[in-house]
Amino acid sequence: MKLNQELARSARAALESVSGSGSAIAILQAELQQRQLDLQEKERLLAEYQILAPADGELLDLYVKPGELLTSGSRAALLAAGQGLRVKVQPDQRYADLAAVGNKAQVWITNDAGVKWDASVVYTEPLGNAEQGSFTAELAFDQEPPLYPGQLLSVQLFAAKQPDAVILPENYLTMQDGRNGVWKAIDGRAEFVTVQLGIRTGDGVVITQGLKEGDMVLLPEGLQEGQRVFPRKSKV
Asked: How many domains does the chain fold into?
């Protein structure tokens, strides 16, 4: 009888132990589930408040400390722009031909012209009325330079190569029936020839079609088709 009582007490203690362990496991499982929910919420908040740099680049300077509160528009860091850097320029619309897509350019830091980087025009804003002023063009570098957004730069644009083009002083140009052209001396007589105009430079207008080197060009005042002329050679 005594042995049976001891066995019964042992069985009851074992049962209580198992029951207690089961309760502890259930509590731990509930705590684990709650912690997982807390982790998911913190990950959601982290993604919501994550700050991304506007471009790839090398970190040059950091203006804030971890945990510091930033207001909208505040500077957080200084980056040296990485791949994909572009330079935006706003030339006068008279120089639209220089900023045609594909044309070459050189860029340098304004106060340091000793180092220049090659670039190309990759975007040109559609032009409206030439009297409206400037337009926007964007340049991309052949090789990425160590520049950062906001730097003051100087830009030189180059016209596309035109091996057959001729530069002519603007006072030799005239119009006939709405056509741009010049008067040429051909076999001792004046003849109006239509020309295709290119960009304007400090030396004159680029003639892309209609003239070739060595042509005898006349000043247009008072000339008529077929008029007898006695030109004198001069260098223009």
From this structure: 3
The amino acid at residue 103 is N
With 0-12 / 13-18 / 19 or more C-beta atoms within 10 angstroms meaning exposed / middle / buried, residue 142 is exposed
- Shared domain check, 148 and 90: yes
CB count in 10 Å sphere of residue 123 = 13
**Does the reported pTM lie above 0.90?**
no
Percentage of the chain lying above the pLDDT 90 cut:
10
The residues that bridge with 209 in the sheet, in sequence order, are: 196
**Reported confidence tier of residue 64, pLDDT bands at 50, 70, 90:** confident
pLDDT of 205 > 60? The answer is yes
24: in domain: yes
Residue 167 near residue 205 (C-beta atoms within 8 A): yes
Residue given tokens 């991309």 in the structure block = 140
